[in-house]
Amino acid sequence: EQLKVSASETLEELEWCLERLENIQTHRSVSDMATSKFRKMLNKELSQFKDGCQNAKQISEYICSTFLDPNEVDPNSAITHLPDKASNENLSRDSSKATNVTQKTSNSTEVRVCGASFLNIADTEGPKAADEHQWLQKANTESSQSCDRVTPTSALSLDVLPPGLKSDQMARLKQFVVTGLDQWGVDIFELSQLTSNPLTCLFYAIFQKRGLIKRFSIPEMNLVRYANLIEEKYNDVPYHNRVHAADVLQSTHVLLNASALTSVFTDLEVMAVLFACAIHDVDHPGLTNQFLINTNDELAILYNDTSVLENHHLAVGFQLLTRPGCDILENVPKKQRLSLRRMVIDMVLATDMSKHMSLLADLKTMVETKKVAGSGILTLDNYSDRMQILQNMIHCADLSNPTKSLKLYRQWNARIMEEHFRQGDRERERGLDLSPMCDRTTASIEKTQVSFIDYIVHPLWETWSDLVHPDALQILDTLDENREWYLNQITKETVSEDSEPPEDKQ
């Protein structure tokens, strides 16, 4: 009995401390400390690897340059090498060896995704590259594998498709939207084959299903025209195209359905996060921020080398709202418009991958605070807390490829690698140093994915799963299964290389 009393008093004291921290507005400082802690932990994990091969070094540099803010990285703790042959300790869970991938630029085939033509990973040499090609060829014909089904927020009306949308398979398209809108891991590539406007299709369907069209008196044709304009502004690049935007939008819609988030956000906040998803990569050139900075691109000059693409996406998205007949917010009161704009800006700027550690630290701090409080209920009373959840929600959706079925994951992986390779080709032509994982002659795809999951994706999704427990458990299971698949590919290659007879030196 005395122990229970003591525990109760301790809990009350902890809750009092948390309240005081919030009242004196030190949450940002706590989050900053968590960010620093996470960054040091990542540096420590990867800096254990010494005397690594060139591929290992590329992976290390890729993680640092992409997911750590260059303005915040401690130069004395820079990551150096990953191993050529890793043990259980240095790959976190299992052993692996990288497989070099060499892609030919001649005699190549093309894969078309929503009108985008690009060289695919199929042209790489070796058995696994040919296997990857088979997956890409079947990408647009196979149906999606098992998905997590989330209870819909409301029933879809008969007018599930936007007015004026054209498709040669209208009945199949309608069925896809009706049955797949609330599924995690729906085959977005199938949707892109059913319609050339997958983003417009989902944008309209989700707004309708969530009652946002009626709630904010949005003229339907304004919504359709605006969505079409945004979709047309997505470039025909391998990865950051309209299909990716549609995927992030639909994934975020599903994440909003988590039971832990029921009634947490206002309708305006829901509309803001969906709007942010739709525009978050609009007019993306298929190049990184660092490339634009290194080449003195006009966008880098315009935005002072700071979240260059993210600022551009926002500018394009809001500029298109001013087109005649495209303002979806024309009946929204001015105060709410300004509030939505503020939220969208904060969310899209947070899609800059260099903000990853700060986002993860914010999320982890919130999860731990929730655990200490012991309520298990999210109480988001201030703008900062609510924005942290929404920013991390889009970030999770943006990094959700490894959590989808293996078929979809491999397709996305092939596309992002091709986009990296194209940038590497341009860097080579200009005589620039090639960015990490952008050299099509040396990039190690399988090992990159294992490290990517271990150090970036899994920590993020594990923390999100803690926040919305138990809704994301199946997602974590799929992530682990996909990691094991890529690890097995490395292991198979290692065994194959070790079994090869020595070369005849005559």
TrEMBL record:
Region of interest: Disordered: 75-104
Binding site for Zn(2+) 1: H244, H280, D281, D398
Pfam family, one: PDEase_I
Active site: H240
Residues that span the membrane, as ranges: none
Source domain of life: Eukaryota
Keyword Coiled coil: no
GO molecular function per UniProt: 3',5'-cyclic-nucleotide phosphodiesterase activity; metal ion binding
Name used for this protein in its record: Phosphodiesterase
Annotated source species: Opisthorchis viverrini
Upper taxonomic lineage: Eukaryota, Metazoa, Spiralia, Lophotrochozoa, Platyhelminthes
